[in-house]
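Hello Y.,

Per our agreement to keep a running log of every chain we model this quarter, I'm adding this entry. I've kept the format consistent with earlier entries: sequence first, then predicted structure.
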Amino acid sequence: MLHRNGAQQRQDDEVFESITVTAQRGIPSLHYVLQQPMVRQLRSYSPAPQSSFSHSDLSESPFQHITLSVDDATKVKIESELMHTGERSVLNQPAFGPIRWEIQRGDQLDSYIGTTLFHVRLQNPEVFDLHYADLTSRVLRGKSIAELSDQIHVAVLGHYDRLPAIPVSEVVRCVEQLRSPRQSTRISAQQELLRWGTPIIPMLQQQLGTDLELEQRACLSETIRMLRPRVEDTPRSLAMLLINDVEFWSLAKPQLTPNEWILVSQHLQQMGLSKSRPHDSSVTSVRPSP
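Predicted structure for the entry above:
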C-alpha cells in the first residue's frame, strides 16, 4: 500500500514508458504505458490456423503497445495491441471473482475465463505469452507465469505423499454449519475452515455456486477472503492454493506425463472432487454474422 503520487516517463531508443500514480481517500491507482519492439516474442510465435495474420505480415520492426491500469489498488486491466496486425488483447482482473481475457482479431473475438492467471494462460499459452510474458516477468521481478506454473507441478508432484488430505465432504459439512441459528456453531465452523488453509479455497468457490442462504453466502465469501494469502506467492504457496483445483489440473493435463496425471487424478478422487471438465469449457469464440 506504500505509494507516491506523481508521474514519470522515459524514452530509451525504441522503448517508451510512462507511469502515473494517484490516490483518492488514501487508496492508490496506477496507469502504466509501454511501447516496445517485439521481434523477440514473435520469433517463437506461430499464429493459429484461424488467426487473421501470418509471419509474412510482419514488418521489420513490429511494435507492441501495452497499458496497465489498477483502480483503487484492486481492479486490474491490461490491454495489449500488436501495432503491425491490429490484434488486441484485454485482460480484466476484478478485486474478487474470475479473470476475463478477450482477444480481438478482425471480426473474431475469443473469450476466456479463469480463476487465476494460471487458469487463463493454460487455455491459450502461446498467445498469452506473446502479449503478456514480458510484462508479467517485470511485475514478478524476473519470474514468468509459465515458469511458476511448472514449479507448481513440481511442488505438488514432488511431495505427493505429504499432500493435505481434506475431503470435500468435511468442507461441505462446515459450509452447512454456517447457516446454523447458533452463533457458536457458525463461528466454530468458520474457524475450522480457516485452519485448513488455502487448499480448500477451490472447494469453497465451488460451494458459492450452490443454493446458499444470504448470510451463509456472505460468511463463506468472507472466509475465502480471509484465506487468500497476503504475502508474496511462492511455488509452495501456489501449489497449496491449486492442489485441489479440478479446473487447473484439467487445463494442465497436456503438460503432465501419464504417471503424473494418474497421481493427480488419484488425489482428486480421494478428496471426493468431481471429474475435470473439458479444457475448452471456459472458452468462447464469436465471429459476427455478415
